[in-house]
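Title: Prediction job returns without error message
Component: structure pipeline
Severity: low
Priority: P3
Assignee: unassigned

Description:
Job completed but the reporter wants confirmation the result is attached to the right record. Sequence as submitted:
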Amino acid sequence: MCDSRGFTLMETVLVLCLTSFLILLFSIYAPVPSYLQEEMERIREYLVQAHIEAMQKHETVTFSFASDALLIDHHRFPYRRGITSDVFSLRFYEDGTISQAKTICFYYRSQQACFYFQLGSGYIDIR
């Protein structure tokens, strides 16, 4: 008399092998922060500091995106090697607002990421 309920040892081993392979595959190809995304986060920190400084000191802070560096009130923060950006200037006002809504894109090899500046609040989003 053979009981046909349940799995055989081979079926169980096969399922475990396939599961292990899938876990390995997804852990190898899991997204990691890219070179460009890391640089965008670094630049965002400078911009947030400039935004806070404008509100604390009650003065306008001008920041410019050059093709190879971020310029904040005559201070130069160069981008990492190989990264370029659109060229444009904006201002944070003393009340926390920004001079205009704008999208500034950064490029590294075939990658592109953009800052989105929201009019009014001066909120900065990265996509």
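Comment from assignee: result matches the submitted record. The chain has one domain: 35-126.
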